[in-house]
Amino acid sequence: MTTAPTVDLRHYTHLDDVWSTLIDIYAEVRADRLHDPHYSVARFGERLSRHGGEPGWQAVVGWDGDQPIGYAYANTITSSQDRWWQRIERPLRDDLTNRPTIAVKELMVREGWRKTGSSQRIHDLLLEGRPEVQVTLMVNPKAGDGKVQAIYERWGYHQVGDVQPSPDSPRLSAMLRDIHAPN
């Protein structure tokens, strides 16, 4: 890990306050995949708009001066019947899906701030003070040749199933951990 830059982390609870920042970071980080319909900026905008209207939406954006360096955002999963749980291919035990849960929907850090600890700081601040007891996310197990999923495993997540959120999306690993898991 390289030396961590001075990054100011800010919470947001209104999507309109950070819409263009999230879109710009997404477009930069996903530049090599934007030709794929699932990863297009338009499709991300559709997902972001839907997520921004869901219960408990919150984002954390990291800033290096006036430059945004990355973000994470999440929503509350409100019931065991939520589409988040229903799309996982192997049914989960009720004691997992009935617990208050936050779903991290996106976590992205721009190239120049990777391997600095910024992504974990953004992630951890997003979870700080949340009323839920567990956190879930989905990750492409092939991303970074498996390195991205390995990072989440180091952060205390474990795989609970596989999911394909939409017909043109890659198959993802659904992961879960307690909010206050040791890092």
Q: Overview of this structure, please?
A:
- The chain is an alpha+beta fold and 183 residues long.
- The chain has one domain (8-178): 3-Layer(aba) Sandwich (Aminopeptidase), CATH 3.40.630.30.
- Helices cover 27% and strands 28% of the residues.
- A seven-stranded mixed sheet has the order 1-2-3-4-5-7-6, sandwiched between helices.
- Strand 2 (58-64) and strand 3 form a beta hairpin.
- The radius of gyration is 16 Å and the shape is globular.
- The chain starts with 7 loop residues before the first strand and ends in a 5-residue tail after the last strand.
- The model has no long low-confidence stretch (mean pLDDT 92).
The total number of structural domains is: 1
Q: Supply the CATH class.
A: Alpha Beta
Distance between the terminal alpha carbons, to the nearest Å? Answer: 16 Å
- Overall SS class: alpha+beta
Radius of gyration, in angstroms, nearest whole number: 16 Å
Largest sheet: 7 strands, mixed
Strand element count: 7
Indicate the CATH architecture: 3-Layer(aba) Sandwich
Q: Kindly identify the CATH topology.
A: Aminopeptidase
Report the CATH superfamily.
Answer: Gcn5-related N-acetyltransferase (GNAT)
Order of the strands making up the biggest sheet: 1-2-3-4-5-7-6
Shape: globular
What is the strand content? 25-35%
Kindly report the average pLDDT value. Answer: 92
In N-to-C order, the SSE pattern is: EHHEEHHEHEHEE
